[in-house]
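Because discrete structure vocabularies remain unfamiliar, we reproduce here a specimen of the format, pairing a chain with its fold in token form:
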Amino acid sequence: MKYPCGVIAALCSVFATTGISGDKPNILWITVEDMSPVLGAYGDTYATTPKLDAFAKESVRYTNAFAAAPICSPSRSSLITGMWAPSLGTSQMRSTFPIPLDVKGFPTYLREAGYFTTNQIKTDYNTEDEARLIKESWDESSPAAHWRSAARKEGQPFFSVINHMVTHQSRSMTWPYAAFQEGVQARLSAEERHDPAKVIVPPYYPDTEITRRDLARFYDCVSVMDAEVGRLLEQLKEDGLAEETIVFFYSDHGSGMPRHKRLLHDSGMKVPLMIRFPEKYKHLAPAAAGETVDRLVTFVDFAPTVISIAGAPVPEALQGETFLGPEVSPKPEFVYGFRDRVDEVFDLSRSIRSERYLLIRNYMPHLSWMQTSVYSDTGDIQREIRQYAADHADTLTPAQRAYASPTRPAEEFFDVTADPQNLKNLLDGELTPEQTTALENHRAALATKRLEILDLGVLPESIMADYVMEENRPLREIALGKSDHRPDLEAIWSAADLVGKGTRAELIDLTYSGDDAIRFWGVIGLRFAFPQDEAILEERYDLMDDVSVAVRIEMAAWMAEVSEKNRTEALQVLARELFHEDWWVALQACRAVEILGLKAKTLIPIIETVHTRHRFAEGDGSLYLAFSSSSFLKKMGMRIEPWDFTDKR
């Protein structure tokens, strides 16, 4: 049962004084970064994970556990709040939007119920209210935070999170190979290191020496992580706490490899989840140790579930389902997924996943799944895939082409039972009656869920910012109608749904709307459906002077790409916005210039100024502007100081 927030504190106070605290389990979260279910326990024969394979025999293993998003910050925003990040306006990478004061970090409710809470070390909650969430959630949050803290009272139950970084994309892909060898591989014996010749190369990768070497590198990271987790579990045993502690092991999203992290396919969203219940708490387990559970589980479910097994009341505002504890929610039919802007890469995609099917809706299908991205493109394997795709454009396999293609389908639909790697888009062929019914059901579930949670991701960031500034409230409160004005999300999502599907007349009609976001989606839809139609461009010329900066930039980007006649004026529009006071607006303009490449070469001096201003400036906005501007200048043949993301801390 979920309870209104107003009664939570009173109930927790009662629990803390009735002796219930003595029956409360300790709860330990062992989290790892950027790792799909590549463990021996999940059937991966190339993995070397003896500690976690042994742990699996003592645990319940979930076969359908999913991140909220295929990237860290938005996923962690969903984890800590128990709410979908798009419903809070925190789905864009390194968002700086506020959240309502009554949206708490869920460990707050555990503290109120008598728990000692620690977090080692990562927070990354993707909101300007991160400091508040940390303060409310954790008794201790630091590189050394641990259940062993002297501040924990004797016998006090704990909730501890310990995060392991060794499988992160930095270690597995973007550090220079020599740094990986020194910082990670050196921790394995020669016998423990993975042989590239024995790698199973996924069909969406080219089978090359670099591909094999970097896949083996990733598995070496997994082996080092396995040993780290084994040592942590030994600490629990040494402290005599193993029989008092429920242990979760999971990853924050899919592997940090190309076509995994950042994508809504199972390779980016599916995660390992194993939960070990000691004997005294086996009544909370959904199955016996060593067994599997096929229930669909997503990160938004973790908060209510942990609160429930801790014996505390679950706030009704939490959006997830309780999958453990005294009152388990009904088994869900679907789980939701989202992808918005990641670093300098703009996007909007949503997914709905059942046990049998995966539907992905791409609202910016004119952009590739493999968009250029400085951080990812630092990795040798990503560069190898990109170069291979350019050199072998006519002979790529369908799986390789789907990832590397400059555009993508507006909709993708996969039978994950028959096609676990999501290689065959069923919409490319004729559907069976069963598949047709399933597609309709998944489309309906997607539409229902986004309105149920009030998914704000359909608003460009500049429009989000306008609402926050004008209404002086967090986006969630605005969406709930607690301000003078709020976006008509149903109408805006309906407009976005016309991308890839609407007629010429329907899409043109969107551009006359009085709603800024609807006009934006009209431009996106027309650009995808009629990319070279200069008549439409001429008719839409005035949108380069639109009151909404998001519309101005998108229209100018399309105009500059196609219209030689109006390219100069379009580039002038983009140039003006490169110095906008809001970095996300400047980034949208910079990214448009970057994608235009040689067609925007007259802006080289201006982009040089942008790059100089941001290359060594503080803040995520400056970092992303430096990423995008450096990519453009590199395309223009200019020498750019190489990026090095090595950090051996």
